[in-house]
Each structure stands twice: as structure tokens, then as C-alpha cells.
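One-letter codes give the sequence; backbone shape is given numerically. An example follows:

. . .
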Amino acid sequence: MAGGTRSSRLGRVQAFDSERGLGLVVAVDGAVFGFHSTAISDGSRRVAVGDAVSFAVAAAHGGRYEAVGLIPVDPA
């Protein structure tokens, strides 16, 4: 994955610490990405463990990748 942001992916929130604003999302392919509450697109800075989300992946510090632009997805 070269720099920049990658296209939209689907996954579920695996963990979220609202006090620290840090969480993990697991993509449907099993890849795990960290995220910060500022990456939640609706501005609420809140998400629940188990929520289905759409997100993009962007390069982060230290050569890692993180989830950005998290959008809740209706479980329909």
C-alpha cells in the first residue's frame, strides 16, 4: 500500500476506550487497524464495540496504517 488513503473497507469495532479516544477496528478480511476518536466522521467521537463501520486506511506514524473516516453502517 503506497502512501495516502486507501478506498473504503467494511469492518467492526473490536475495542474502544472513550477516555483515551483510542480504538481498534477489524476489517472483514481480518486486518486490524487502530483509530482515534477524531476519525469518527459524524463528529460524535463515540462508537460502540461491535458496531459495523465503513472506513478508509491511511498511513500513520512509524510505518503503520490506521482507520480513518469511520462511518457507522446499518446492520440491515
In short: The first strand starts at residue 5 and ends at 17. The chain has a mean pLDDT of 90. The chain is about 0% helix and 55% strand. Residues 3 and 65 are 10 Å apart (CA to CA).
